[in-house]
Design goal:
Elements: H1 16-26, E1 35-40, E2 46-52, E3 58-63, H2 73-83, E4 88-93, H3 113-123, E5 129-135, H4 137-149, E6 155-161, H5 167-175, H6 180-200, H7 216-227, H8 233-240, E7 253-256, H9 271-275, E8 280-283, H10 305-314
Parallel strand pairs: 3-4, 3-5, 5-6, 6-7, 7-8
Antiparallel strand pairs: 1-2, 2-4
Length: 318
Amino acid sequence: MQHPTDYRAPAVFRDPHVHTVWAARVRKVDPPGWQRQRVELPDGDFLDVDRLLGGHRQAVILLHGLEGSADRTYMRALARALHGTGRDVLAVNMRGCSGEPNRLPRSYHSGATEDLRAVIEAFSPDYDAFEAAGFSLGGNLLLKYLGEEGSNSHIQAAMAVSVPCDLAGSSEQLAGPGGRLYMWNFMRLLRRKVHQKAAAFPGVVSAEGVEDMRTFRAFDDAYTAPLHGYRDARHYWAECSSNRFLSGIRVPTLLINAADDPFLSPGCFPIDACRDSAHVDLEIPSTGGHVGFLQGGLFSGEPAWTELRAVAFFGPAT
């Protein structure tokens, strides 16, 4: 169902671009004292998981956004907030995002739920219960996993923030005038990884033409889709958009997308699907930017609203 929301951005953050960039580039949160553990994957690759430990039997899994890592500010901040409720935290660095290139030509992507399953399996001996929170791409992956698993999900509750539920629409949104700064930054990072892959896997990955690519469609057509078993970008987006998996979710799930998020197209606000769901609550604050939801002034040390919302949603550890 659509849930009422009490968040409204302070006046200084009413511009969604200022809000988005400030939250990503200016807001600072100290590292929470991660302990890194490597998870070996069935295909011979690996994931590095940064753990915040307290001897708890309940853990929350955190999933970052495109070209992020466990050390993004939003990951650090939510880890600290949820650790304070009596949970261990497992912050997943997706393939190639931990500071060390992954071993295979493939990488991570918006629908790689097999990697989330591998993390759950690896840590199941340590915990009695899992919850999860995902941001942006990580939120899409999380919702897709929950819909695939249905009543068999090993995650008992989940929260997803700033999610491009419609990957095609979000890609087109970012390719437009309002998304050029973000697209330029993402493509800069993705080009660097293509060059690394081409050097490591000559004859399998080619960097030819990558410097001319300016959109996700071009990149996903050339790299994401073929390296991960999809025909082209459109096929990848259609198969991995979390919108099509919402009806299968059977655990309490909170989806928060700001109406002014510059990354999201109209299709990223699944009002009808959530209205028909007994398990997915949708909140659409009028402001918040992309993974923003800041409170107070420019240099306020207050928690972001989503961190407080997560503590309230998950509640104290059981």
